[in-house]
Design brief:
about 325 residues; alpha/beta; 5-stranded parallel beta sheet; two-stranded antiparallel sheet; 13 helices
Length: about 325
Amino acid sequence: GAARPWTGGTGLRVAKSAAWRGQREVTTLGAAARDTASPVGAQPRPAGAAAARGATNADPDPTPTNLRFVPDLLFLAGMGRSGTTALLEVFSAHADIALGVERYKRLYPRDDQPVTAALFEEQRFFDFGDGFTNLTPEHAPEWAPHYEAMRAKWATARYVGDKMVAIRLQHVWATLPDARFVCIVRDLEPVAASWEARARNPDDHGWDAESDATKAVAAWNRSLRRVRRAVKQRPDRAVVVEYDRFFGDPVGASLDRVLSWLGVDRSPEIDAAFAAVHRQYVEKVAPKARTLSPGVQAFLDEHAERDVWREVTSGLAL
């Protein structure tokens, strides 16, 4: 049920709120280099605090007094087939939010490779020669308009970041403790059915044939536990939404709560993007019949951690 890439939202810019203009911090690269990251769980530092961009003394800075605006880092996180693409289309439509499409998808799962903020410097982020993703404008041209729109606002956006399906919040926080996460969770059956369909499709070269419905349940359990831990541990840095509740609500109440948490307005671009994904949800996703074999359904029923699902969706989701 992933939505098509959203290519709009590049025209009308709405004025930033006075609160944001007052909060946005200007910092020198030299100062950023001298600061050290605080441990995960520490009190959050002001937006744009040191290490938020991973600068080093080796960074080019032709003017000693050169100042740069420092945006906050934002990630959209959810397991594969749980709605991260549709979520991306909504939030990246905002003039103050610029996000990649799993830009570092091959980096996030690696314990030996820290996620540094230098990766999100504009020149570094849009240099796709590192092999960290297959979703480049060259190899996935359907995303070329998205990246063009993101680069156009990267230097002025309040939030820059990426979407990820690895659910690596703790790993990111180890080096970027100020990073924010909007997580999304989805009920197991449609996720498992989607995994099963893609695994059985011989023409789907972008999916592992062994990642079928039975593999989905372990990933689903793991993602729920990680999201639960993060949101309970750091509600100022992580929130979670539930797929059907988020996209199925024509008013977008969950969207309003996330935008408020981020401190950004509900702009006309956001409204247009949300209307598009809501319409697709109503017309294509919700009515879709999904069937799993009795054996697969029994496997899911036996292994799914439904208690964690209920805790996340009833007690934590916005």
